[in-house]
């Protein structure tokens, strides 16, 4: 059995995607509230005002998690719910919501894994420049301290930022996520630098504020490359492609993880980005590079790479014609959960936590009252088999968080794309565990795929 006995099986969600009631009892506005008001920004014209109404139904949701035998829950905190203006006055009622939620989880035997930032930046901070403002690192550290002081007596697992590639890249470069900006590349990288500083400062706050043993990490996009064949040349090419970047893009593994784990920006990208690359101030890289306990990554798919027969250089090749696709049209590539953990473990040397993995579909309640999602079961079982193989090959694996516990607000796709193992009827808020939820319960009980 390659998964260790203390392996963390879990599910993941994020505040804006499930909670609803963003302004309830004193909460503030986030950039996602702003973005959703923009005509055309969200494909079904929806927003997170109600979402899964988790704010009001958290007890029911936790009870369902317990019933489904889920021992670990990755959740995030809405910064503007806790500090409506992002800095300054704390909204006691907002903080109390998370306090009650954590108690409810622990009373149900479920360990909370808290992400401090899953994209709902306070709107008031956006007006001050958001991540473009170097002070954002301190704003975030101050917010982290409020949360850590309140919850760290009970929360022993923390993640700072979710997917900087997305909230910086999609949020401020391509503009398809909140706040919807299209900055030039130099400014994008500057915002990213500040986000990494925020990460480092938050890690310091967590370490200083926690009295009991605590695991700390972050949850970037993990974009592994998959070798086209098992030839050593293709494997080397895939490894090289996983850790290099060929254009001015933030879709990089190394741009974000090298500073955080090694304290340096990757030289190859610094050269490629030229004068767009940020110039760190004295001490910045030391602040960014705080000791972390695990390598977290959200992994959904991977590109296929082979070695150029003459030069050996990586070349991207198409997925096989007719390859299975998720509702986002992401290729179904289970080997991403073999090669990703393997390459990341080789380079960064930390135990791997898959902080997200799952399949978006458009599923519905069938005439028999159940939700049949055989494709999701097949997807998850293939990916888990690959992860298990990585463990078998000596990769230290610490946890796996399925995205997502329940259907929710899927950003610019609104409520059309469903990632849950629990179906949510948005008219009635009725939750229906899908077939995959019962399947996952059995996987967890067996500590591996069944
Ligand atoms: C992500 C996000 C999730 C998405 C999921 C599916 O980190 O991209 O963490 O919020 O909903 O990945 O797209």
Describe the protein's architecture and organization.
This protein is of the alpha/beta class and 450 residues long. It has a single domain, classed as Glycosidases (TIM Barrel, Alpha-Beta Barrel), CATH 3.20.20. Helix content is 39%, strand content 14%. The chain has 16 helices and 13 strands. It has helices spanning 15-18, 31-36, 54-67, 79-82, 92-107, 123-127, 136-151, 164-172, 185-209, 232-242, 254-262, 267-273, 284-288, 336-348, 374-392, 435-446, and strands at residues 8-12, 72-76, 111-117, 157-162, 215-219, 225-227, 295-298, 303-307, 314-317, 352-357, 397-403, 422-424, 431-433. Strands 5-4-3-2-1-11-10-7 form an eight-stranded parallel sheet. A hairpin with a 6-residue loop joins strand 12 and strand 13 (431-433). The longest helix has 25 residues, at 185-209. The radius of gyration is 21 Å and the shape is globular. The mean pLDDT is 97. Bound molecules: D-gluconic acid. D-gluconic acid is lined by residues 14, 17, 162-163, 166, 298, 356, 403, 410, 419.
Give a quick summary of the entry.
The protein has 450 residues and is of the alpha/beta class. Helices cover 39% and strands 14% of the residues.
């Amino acid at each position: 059995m390659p998964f260790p006995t203390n392996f963390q099986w879990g599910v993941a969600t994020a505040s804006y995607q499930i909670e609803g009631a963003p302004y309830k009892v004193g909460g503030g506005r986030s950039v996602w509230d702003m973005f959703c008001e923009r005509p055309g920004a969200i494909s079904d014209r929806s927003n997170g005002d109600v979402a899964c109404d988790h704010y009001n139904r958290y007890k029911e949701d936790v009870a369902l998690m317990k019933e489904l035998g889920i021992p670990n829950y990755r959740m995030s905190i809405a910064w503007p719910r806790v500090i409506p203006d992002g800095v300054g006055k704390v909204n006691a009622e907002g903080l109390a919501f998370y306090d009650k939620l954590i108690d409810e989880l622990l009373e149900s035997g479920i360990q909370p894994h808290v992400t401090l930032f899953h994209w709902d930046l306070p709107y008031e901070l956006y007006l001050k420049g958001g991540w473009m403002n170097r002070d954002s690192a301190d704003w975030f550290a101050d917010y982290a301290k409020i949360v850590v002081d309140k919850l760290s007596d009970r929360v022993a697992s923390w993640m700072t930022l979710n997917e900087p590639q997305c909230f910086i890249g999609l949020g401020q470069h391509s503009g398809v996520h909140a706040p919807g900006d299209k900055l030039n590349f130099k400014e994008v990288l500057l915002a990213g630098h500040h986000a990494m500083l925020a990460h480092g400062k938050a890690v310091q706050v967590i370490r200083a504020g926690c009295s009991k043993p605590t695991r700390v990490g972050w949850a970037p996009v993990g974009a592994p490359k998959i070798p086209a064949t098992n030839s050593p040349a293709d494997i080397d090419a895939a490894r090289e492609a996983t850790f290099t970047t060929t254009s001015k893009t933030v879709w990089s593994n190394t741009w974000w993880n090298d500073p955080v784990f090694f304290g340096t920006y990757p030289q190859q990208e610094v050269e490629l980005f030229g004068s767009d690359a940020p110039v760190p101030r004295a001490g910045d890289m030391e602040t960014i590079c705080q000791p972390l306990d695990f390598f977290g990554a959200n992994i959904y798919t991977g590109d296929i790479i082979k070695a150029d027969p003459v030069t050996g250089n990586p070349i991207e090749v198409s997925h096989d014609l007719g390859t299975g696709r998720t509702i986002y049209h992401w290729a179904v590539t289970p080997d991403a959960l073999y090669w990703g953990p393997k390459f990341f473990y080789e380079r960064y040397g930390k135990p791997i936590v898959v902080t997200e993995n799952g399949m978006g579909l458009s599923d519905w309640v069938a005439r028999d009252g159940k939700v049949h999602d055989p494709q999701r079961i097949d997807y998850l079982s293939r990916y888990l088999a690959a992860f298990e193989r990585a463990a078998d090959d000596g990769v230290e694996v610490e946890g796996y968080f399925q995205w997502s516990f329940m259907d929710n607000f899927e950003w610019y796709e609104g409520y059309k794309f469903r990632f849950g193992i629990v179906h949510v009827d948005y008219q009635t808020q009725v939750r229906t565990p899908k077939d995959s939820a019962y399947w996952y319960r059995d996987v967890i009980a067996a500590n591996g795929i069944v």
